[in-house]
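Lab meeting, item 3. Inverse folding demo.
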Protein backbone atom coordinates (compact mmCIF):
# COMPACT_ATOMS: atom_id res chain seq x y z
CA UNK A 1 0.00 0.00 0.00
CA UNK A 2 1.46 3.35 -1.03
CA UNK A 3 0.97 6.25 1.33
CA UNK A 4 1.42 9.80 0.28
CA UNK A 5 3.17 12.52 2.26
CA UNK A 6 0.77 14.23 4.65
CA UNK A 7 -1.12 11.18 5.88
CA UNK A 8 -1.65 10.38 9.55
CA UNK A 9 1.48 8.22 9.57
CA UNK A 10 3.64 11.22 8.66
CA UNK A 11 1.46 14.33 8.96
CA UNK A 12 4.39 16.72 8.49
CA UNK A 13 7.07 14.95 6.43
CA UNK A 14 9.26 18.06 6.21
CA UNK A 15 9.75 17.94 10.01
CA UNK A 16 10.85 14.30 10.03
CA UNK A 17 13.61 14.95 7.52
CA UNK A 18 15.57 17.13 9.93
CA UNK A 19 14.96 15.32 13.24
CA UNK A 20 18.10 13.22 13.08
CA UNK A 21 20.28 16.33 12.78
CA UNK A 22 21.03 17.80 16.20
CA UNK A 23 21.79 21.48 16.42
CA UNK A 24 25.33 22.28 17.46
CA UNK A 25 24.05 24.14 20.54
CA UNK A 26 22.61 20.89 21.93
CA UNK A 27 26.11 19.43 22.25
CA UNK A 28 27.47 22.47 24.07
CA UNK A 29 26.90 22.95 27.77
CA UNK A 30 24.70 25.96 28.43
CA UNK A 31 25.41 28.18 31.42
CA UNK A 32 22.51 29.69 33.40
CA UNK A 33 23.03 33.44 33.79
CA UNK A 34 21.01 35.22 36.50
CA UNK A 35 20.13 38.87 37.01
CA UNK A 36 21.31 40.62 40.18
CA UNK A 37 17.92 39.93 41.82
CA UNK A 38 18.30 36.17 41.26
CA UNK A 39 15.87 35.78 38.36
CA UNK A 40 17.02 33.82 35.31
CA UNK A 41 18.35 36.13 32.58
CA UNK A 42 19.37 33.60 29.93
CA UNK A 43 21.03 30.30 29.14
CA UNK A 44 24.31 31.22 27.51
CA UNK A 45 26.74 29.21 25.41
CA UNK A 46 30.40 29.44 26.30
CA UNK A 47 30.95 31.97 23.48
CA UNK A 48 28.07 34.17 24.63
CA UNK A 49 29.25 33.89 28.23
CA UNK A 50 32.76 34.96 27.19
CA UNK A 51 31.24 38.05 25.49
CA UNK A 52 29.31 38.89 28.69
CA UNK A 53 32.51 38.63 30.71
CA UNK A 54 34.46 40.70 28.21
CA UNK A 55 31.80 43.41 28.43
CA UNK A 56 32.21 43.47 32.23
CA UNK A 57 28.61 42.44 32.96
CA UNK A 58 29.35 39.34 35.07
CA UNK A 59 29.59 39.97 38.81
CA UNK A 60 30.00 36.41 40.09
CA UNK A 61 30.90 33.06 38.55
CA UNK A 62 30.27 29.77 40.37
CA UNK A 63 32.47 26.87 39.30
CA UNK A 64 32.71 23.18 40.12
CA UNK A 65 35.94 21.77 41.55
CA UNK A 66 37.08 20.79 38.07
CA UNK A 67 36.68 24.40 36.87
CA UNK A 68 33.46 23.94 34.92
CA UNK A 69 31.15 26.96 35.18
CA UNK A 70 27.80 26.07 36.80
CA UNK A 71 26.15 29.52 36.92
CA UNK A 72 26.84 33.24 36.77
CA UNK A 73 25.27 36.39 38.17
CA UNK A 74 25.21 39.74 36.43
CA UNK A 75 25.93 43.14 37.97
CA UNK A 76 23.01 45.42 38.82
CA UNK A 77 22.37 47.45 35.66
CA UNK A 78 21.31 51.10 35.57
CA UNK A 79 17.55 51.46 35.85
CA UNK A 80 17.03 48.09 37.54
CA UNK A 81 15.49 48.10 41.02
CA UNK A 82 17.72 46.94 43.85
CA UNK A 83 17.20 43.30 44.82
CA UNK A 84 15.05 42.71 47.90
CA UNK A 85 16.92 41.51 50.94
CA UNK A 86 15.84 38.42 52.85
CA UNK A 87 15.20 40.65 55.89
CA UNK A 88 12.61 42.74 54.03
CA UNK A 89 10.74 39.61 52.95
CA UNK A 90 10.78 38.18 56.47
CA UNK A 91 9.28 41.30 58.04
CA UNK A 92 9.74 42.72 61.52
CA UNK A 93 11.49 40.61 64.11
CA UNK A 94 9.80 40.45 67.50
CA UNK A 95 12.52 38.53 69.29
CA UNK A 96 16.25 38.80 69.79
CA UNK A 97 19.04 36.71 71.27
CA UNK A 98 20.02 37.73 74.76
CA UNK A 99 23.23 36.67 76.52
CA UNK A 100 22.52 35.35 80.02
CA UNK A 101 24.84 33.82 82.62
CA UNK A 102 23.82 30.27 81.65
CA UNK A 103 24.13 30.98 77.91
CA UNK A 104 22.21 32.58 75.04
CA UNK A 105 18.42 32.72 75.21
CA UNK A 106 15.65 34.23 73.10
CA UNK A 107 13.84 37.25 74.49
CA UNK A 108 10.76 38.99 73.13
CA UNK A 109 11.30 42.52 71.91
CA UNK A 110 9.64 45.17 74.08
CA UNK A 111 7.36 47.52 72.16
CA UNK A 112 8.58 50.56 74.07
CA UNK A 113 12.21 49.82 73.19
CA UNK A 114 13.37 49.00 76.74
CA UNK A 115 14.89 45.70 77.79
CA UNK A 116 13.94 45.76 81.47
CA UNK A 117 10.98 44.10 83.15
CA UNK A 118 8.34 41.72 81.90
CA UNK A 119 5.91 44.30 80.51
CA UNK A 120 6.38 43.93 76.78
CA UNK A 121 3.95 46.71 75.87
CA UNK A 122 3.91 50.31 77.12
CA UNK A 123 1.53 50.92 80.07
CA UNK A 124 -0.86 52.98 77.92
CA UNK A 125 -1.42 49.90 75.70
CA UNK A 126 -2.23 47.52 78.56
CA UNK A 127 -5.93 48.43 78.66
CA UNK A 128 -6.32 47.82 74.93
CA UNK A 129 -4.53 44.49 75.26
CA UNK A 130 -6.76 43.35 78.12
CA UNK A 131 -9.86 44.43 76.14
CA UNK A 132 -8.76 42.26 73.18
CA UNK A 133 -8.25 39.30 75.51
CA UNK A 134 -11.71 39.85 77.05
CA UNK A 135 -13.35 40.10 73.60
CA UNK A 136 -11.77 36.80 72.61
CA UNK A 137 -13.27 35.07 75.62
CA UNK A 138 -9.94 34.56 77.35
CA UNK A 139 -10.72 36.51 80.55
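The presenter then showed the designed sequence:
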Amino acid sequence: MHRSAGTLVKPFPQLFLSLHVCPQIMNAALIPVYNADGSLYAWASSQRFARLQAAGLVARVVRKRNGQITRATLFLRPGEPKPMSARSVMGTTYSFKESLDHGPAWELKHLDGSREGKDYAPPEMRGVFLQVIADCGGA
